[in-house]
Write the structure tokens for this entry.
Amino acid sequence: MKTRITELFGIQHPIIQGGMHYVGFAELAAAVSNAGGLGLITGLTQKTPELLANEIAKCRTLTDKPFGVNLTFLPTLSSPDYPGYIKAIIDGGVKAVETAGNNPQKWLPMLHEAGVKVIHKCTSVRHSLKAQAIGCDAVSVDGFECGGHPGEDDIPNFILLPRAADELRIPFVASGGMADGRSLVAALALGAEGMNMGTRFIATQEAPVHQNVKDAIVAASELDTRLVMRPLRNTERVLRNEAVDRLLEKEKALGTSIKFDDIIDEVAGVYPKIMLDGTMDAGAWSCGMVAGLIHDIPTVKELIDRIMVEADAIIAQRLAGFARV
Ligand SMILES: Cc1cc2nc3c(=O)[nH]c(=O)nc-3n(C[C@H](O)[C@H](O)[C@H](O)COP(=O)(O)O)c2cc1C
């Protein structure tokens, strides 16, 4: 399939694996890129620019296809060495960066000068337009359904994607709630030129996370996510567990006086415990409503091939069958 997204990133299928903390290691990024999509290493999971450089080098040994790096500019407890990370990306010859969170404007000239294409993840039309205005090459439009940080507007993709299509000139992918060939065709119909998946890629053979995490996603339904940290305007969609229930109790009890310190046990430093150790109640971890559509743990290649075959069949058979003669 050829779209402006496949052309931009030099990939075969318009499918991107979104950055995911403690999931987006070289193994997963390479598997996605080898299967014809765009895999992304999650920059900040690597504690230093040197470690990111090593992970990029490792990914190169696993694939000769294009892959990228996610750089997230979110409120974190310590301020990461962003110039160092950018240098590691450029020096590592990476040609695709997914930025997320705060405005990436400051870093665009350096990245563009090095031939890096930048796709900025946005949860609103106004942020997408801003990304376009500052010179981003593409946007990943992340609807309210998404795992992770959906922003504060709560607009689901059935509205957000056509709104983005009406306003944007640069290409965009649909993100949030994407799982299969139906998602891809729907995304294309609504104006996107590809899709970005997070949660779906965790439940794959190659995702280098504990089996408990994959099993939890397969076991979950679309009813099992919760929004946390809304009172702090740092809303995150997570899978419900004991820690999340405790966190929500605290939010209810403390109301608007809640501070980050009050919930630090439930959110700080929990990712390695969940993703690497499989301690599923250790804290709040991002997961999309799309868990309700995930029933197996295929290889990344099986997943992507299946999506493309299903998408082709929907377009050529189901939709063509509805066409007026
Ligand atoms: C476990 C997990 C960790 C994530 N970590 C990040 C991150 O560090 N940076 C980022 O930009 N997005 C992160 N995301 C969001 C994904 O890149 C993607 O936008 C989102 O998962 C799309 O929604 P979906 O899960 O419904 O596919 C994360 C998502 C998940 C599920």
Notes: The mean pLDDT is 97. The first strand starts at residue 15 and ends at 17. The two ends are 25 Å apart (CA to CA).
